[in-house]
Design the sequence.
């Protein structure tokens, strides 16, 4: 069984982990706010420049050239913004996952230690029940590991899809830009 000192130590570790996650969450919010502020400044400057250029257009050819010159950088900036945002969210998500895995591993270790302690003091003739409990624990551990592997694989697939999407998002804008210039 858990001693009072072990219980208190476990509680302190959990509180420290939660505060650490809170700090990481706030840091990611701060990074997102900085990213949004930077994107807003760039957008405002770009819009001012584009409006000035639009006001100086003298014919349709200049308008088409201006239009094509605006869309390509806009698409590239949108992809860049999405990439930065994804990196921030991915980083904090990874931190949360690692902490959750560590907490689950610690809880599982404590549970196994408690079961082992109970097994040692089990009465004669309870070997079948002890074996059943140990099998259940090992099955649950295996299931937890396979779920963690599946989540990691799904995360990797989602990241690969996101990377492929961002890589191809700029291509149509570039083609449209070249078509409009021609």
Sequence:
């Amino acid at each position: 069984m858990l001693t009072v000192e072990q219980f208190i130590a476990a509680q302190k570790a959990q509180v420290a982990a939660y505060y650490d996650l809170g700090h990481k969450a706030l840091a990611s919010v701060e990074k997102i706010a900085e990213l949004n502020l930077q994107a807003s400044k760039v957008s405002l400057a770009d819009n001012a420049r584009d409006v000035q250029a639009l006001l100086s257009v003298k014919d349709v050819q200049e308008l088409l050239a201006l239009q094509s010159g605006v869309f390509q950088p806009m698409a590239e900036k949108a992809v860049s913004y999405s990439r930065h945002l994804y990196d921030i969210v991915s980083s904090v998500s990874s931190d949360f996952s690692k902490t959750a895995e560590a907490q689950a591993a610690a809880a599982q270790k404590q549970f196994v230690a408690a079961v082992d302690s109970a097994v040692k003091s089990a009465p004669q003739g309870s070997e079948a029940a002890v074996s059943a409990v140990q099998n259940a624990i090992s099955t649950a551990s295996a299931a937890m590991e396979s779920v963690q592997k599946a989540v990691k694989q799904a995360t990797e697939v989602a990241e690969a899809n996101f990377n492929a999407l961002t890589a191809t998002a700029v291509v149509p804008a570039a083609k449209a830009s070249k078509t409009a210039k021609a």
Observations:
- The longest helix spans residues 60-120.
